[in-house]
Structure formats: structure tokens, C-alpha cells
Specification:
This protein is α+β, with helices and mostly antiparallel strands and 407 residues long. Helices cover 22% and strands 25% of the residues. The chain contains seven helices and 18 strands. The strands form six sheets. It has a five-stranded mixed beta sheet with strand order 7-6-5-17-18, with no helix packed on it. A four-stranded antiparallel beta sheet has the order 9-10-8-16. A three-stranded antiparallel beta sheet has the order 11-14-13, with no helix packed on it. Strand 9 and strand 10 form a beta hairpin. Helix 1 packs across helix 2 and helix 4 packs across helix 5. The relative contact order is 0.11.
Length: 407
């Protein structure tokens, strides 16, 4: 990187005299007399003037002479170190930025102002691949919960540079999906067995936060379970009031979805963002719900997926109600139903399906940048620059989330 010349080496005589007087007052306070007729004070003033003149002349000498002078004075100069900076580019098409041996056809420079000189950047590598891409969204993981970050304005390079602004708890986990696939020579008979187990389970011990659908595919059977906490109040009357519904864990488990009451303007302030009460171990209770509040919007899940053993726990509970299913080994997939509007992070579905979510979320709190490429384009090389305004020695972890490739 080419940098502007260093500032002048001139030493101001007033500053030099001030520093000298402070040191003499500390060592010998009675020896200082700021009298122009005093020979000692006159020598000090003349010496300061000579230092100022000689320091100005140092700017006119080659840098090698200054280095030699510093060596004679016993000063050791620190070796030069290259300065590294980040330049954000907006690529219009796929290609490479190459630094030829001859004249460079392009220049990357900073703006020159009254207080800052022009700085020119050179490639740290002989060539760098570029491709069109935009920052589709930002998100942060804090204490296991996902927060959707609204990117701040970036008029210089919109879509290439994003600064985190407002943070809102993500609603992408409001409906989580678990799929169980079976290959069967008699899919109709298998469907009847699973439906019978489902009917017995939901009649005897309905969980309240789960729905199950069974159907056939080209080569077998598909069971789809949707985790939706508002199903607990599906049969509640429309006139509002105190609402209660079933809320049971899976077999051999104590886990139920952690939920809160929606922060909705229709609800009383004392009720918003509170945890629902438990009337008994198997029922959930929300008091004083207004009549104009939709029950399918009453409860909101914490912004985190169900634990990794929940999909197996759902199938294990079905098997408890129909032992003939015990020999089956389903292919299990999981994901989420991403809410419409384009504001929620759509990459979460791919991350859960590919298994990348739990590999990353088990680490400390971190931030995510969702990088979107042009339709039909596969990622080859991706570099993400992450700048933090906090401590310089703080460890920063940034994960690039590519469309269709997971984490």
C-alpha cells in the first residue's frame, strides 16, 4: 500500500523549552530563572532555536541520512510493516482482478480530505476472483436464540456493505417441520398402521403443540410432523377469555416447546412477553385473552430450534402406540416453514436440513451474513470481511451462508 509522506520532522522550540523547564523544575526547581538577561536561560533559548532549525533541515536530507543519524544517536528504528486494508468491490460480472507486471489499468484509492491524505491500495495477491453477489440479510445468535438484524443504510455500496442496526427476535422457528420417509412394498398398509398410532396418541395423550399428516409417495410413505404451539388452543371459543389447552411432552422426555405470549397491541401490557402458566403438568393456561385476538397468533416460540433428539422422540412416541412400527427405520429430515414477506432468514431451513445448524450453534455467540448469488450460479470462492468496533483483540467469528449450500 502506498502511503502519503510522513509529517515534518520539525521540533518546535516552544514545545522543547516547555518540556525542558518541566524537567528542571522537577530536578532542580531553584535553578530555573526565566530571565532573558540570565546567561543560562539565554543558552537554553538559543539551543532550542538551533534544534528547531536543524530539525527542519532534516526534512531536506534523504531518508538514509536520517537513519544514519538515528543510529549515531543510539536509536533503533522499528522495521517497516505492510499495512493491510479491506476494499469492498461491486462486481458486475464474473472475472478476476489481476495485478500485471506492467502498468496497472486500475487504481483503488481512498478519498482525500483536509485532514487525511490519499491512500492507494495494491493487491496483496497477484489476482483475486470476483463475482456478482449481494448481502441478503444479517442475523445474530445470542444465548442460543436467533435475532434478525436490519442492515443499516450504506449509500456507497448498497448490497455489498451492511451495518447492523435494529435487532428483532426471529420468528423463523414459529413452525418447525419434521419429515419421516419410508420405502415400502405395501404403502397403504403402512399408512393405516401409522394413522392408527397417530389417532390413539392424540386421543389418549394429545401433546397440544404438534400436528401429524400421513401420505404416500412414489416409492413409499411420508409422515410430516409440524411443531406449532398455537395448536393447543385450536378448539378454543372465539369469544376470548381464559384459554387452556393440552401441553404434554413426548414419551421418555420432559421437553416441551418454550413459548411466550405474543407482544401484540391487542393484549394487555401485563400479559405480553410473559410465559404461559401451567394449570397441571399436561395443560397450558393464558388468562384474560381479548375476543378480537386470533388464537393462532397468541403464542410465540423462542427463536431456537427443537433439540436434536426431538425428531427421534416423535417417532419413538408413535411406536409406543403401535409396536408393529418398531422395526422400521425412517429417513428423518427437518426444516422450518419460513414466514412470507422476505424479512426472515431463509437460510435456516437449509442449515437445519443439512445438519449445519447444530455444528455452528454449539459455539459462542456469533453473527451471520447471508450471501446471495445470481440465480443458477454456484459459489466457487467467497471471502467475507467482518469489522467490529469493539476491542482490537476480540475474537470475531463470521460464517458465510450461501444459497442452497447450507453452512
Amino acid at each position: 500500500m502506498r502511503v502519503p509522506p510522513p509529517p515534518t520532522l520539525r521540533i518546535d522550540r516552544a514545545d522543547l523549552l516547555r518540556d525542558l523547564v518541566e524537567r528542571l523544575e522537577d530536578k532542580a526547581p531553584d535553578a530555573i530563572r526565566r530571565d532573558p538577561t540570565d546567561p543560562a536561560w539565554l543558552v537554553l533559548e538559543e539551543s532550542a532555536w538551533m534544534v528547531e532549525v536543524l530539525s527542519e533541515q532534516l526534512d531536506e536530507y534523504p531518508w538514509a541520512v536520517v537513519q544514519q543519524l538515528a543510529h549515531l544517536l543510539g536509536v533503533s528504528l522499528r522495521p517497516a510493516r505492510p499495512s493491510v486494508g479491506v476494499v469492498a468491490l461491486e462486481a458486475l460480472s464474473d472475472g478476476r482482478v489481476v495485478a500485471p507486471a506492467s502498468a496497472v489499468p486500475w487504481r483503488f484509492v481512498t478519498l482525500q480530505t483536509e485532514t487525511a491524505g490519499l491512500i492507494e491500495f495494491e493487491l496483496a495477491e497477484p489476482e483475486v476472483p470476483v463475482m456478482p453477489a449481494t448481502i441478503a440479510g444479517l442475523a445474530r445468535l445470542r444465548d442460543g436464540e436467533l435475532w434478525r438484524v436490519t442492515p443499516g443504510p450504506s449509500p456507497e455500496l448498497p448490497g455489498q456493505v451492511a451495518w447492523g442496526a435494529e435487532e428483532v427476535r426471529s420468528g423463523v422457528f414459529s413452525k418447525e417441520v419434521f419429515q419421516y420417509r419410508f420405502v415400502s412394498t405395501d404403502p397403504e398398509a403402512l399408512v393405516k398402521q401409522i394413522e392408527a398410532a397417530h389417532a390413539r396418541w392424540f386421543e389418549e395423550r394429545p401433546p397440544g403443540w404438534l400436528s401429524i399428516e400421513v401420505g404416500t409417495t412414489d416409492d413409499g410413505v411420508l409422515v410430516q410432523a409440524v411443531l406449532d404451539p398455537n395448536l393447543a388452543f385450536a378448539g378454543a371459543p372465539e369469544e376470548g377469555g381464559d384459554l387452556s389447552g393440552p401441553w404434554r411432552p413426548l414419551d421418555e422426555s420432559t421437553w416441551t416447546p418454550p413459548v411466550r405470549v405474543h407482544d401484540h397491541p391487542v393484549l394487555p401490557v401485563s400479559l405480553r412477553n410473559t410465559r404461559p402458566m401451567r394449570l397441571e403438568e399436561d395443560r397450558i393456561f393464558v388468562p384474560g385473552v381479548p375476543s378480537n385476538m386470533l388464537v393462532d397468533e397468541l403464542l410465540v416460540r423462542d427463536a431456537r430450534p427443537a433439540p436434536d433428539d426431538v425428531p427421534k422422540g416423535i417417532w419413538r412416541t408413535l411406536v409406543h402406540f403401535e409396536r408393529k412400527l418398531a422395526s422400521l427405520r425412517p429417513e428423518i429430515r427437518r426444516g422450518v416453514v419460513v414466514p412470507g414477506g422476505g424479512t426472515e432468514p431463509s437460510w435456516v431451513d437449509d442449515a437445519l436440513r443439512g445438519g449445519g445448524w447444530f455444528r455452528v450453534a454449539e459455539r459462542a455467540d456469533q453473527s451471520f451474513a447471508h450471501i446471495a448469488f445470481d440465480a443458477g450460479r454456484s459459489a466457487r470462492t467467497l471471502r467475507v470481511a467482518w469489522m467490529h468496533a469493539g476491542e482490537a483483540d476480540r475474537e470475531i467469528q463470521a460464517f458465510a451462508l450461501l444459497d442452497g449450500t447450507g453452512m
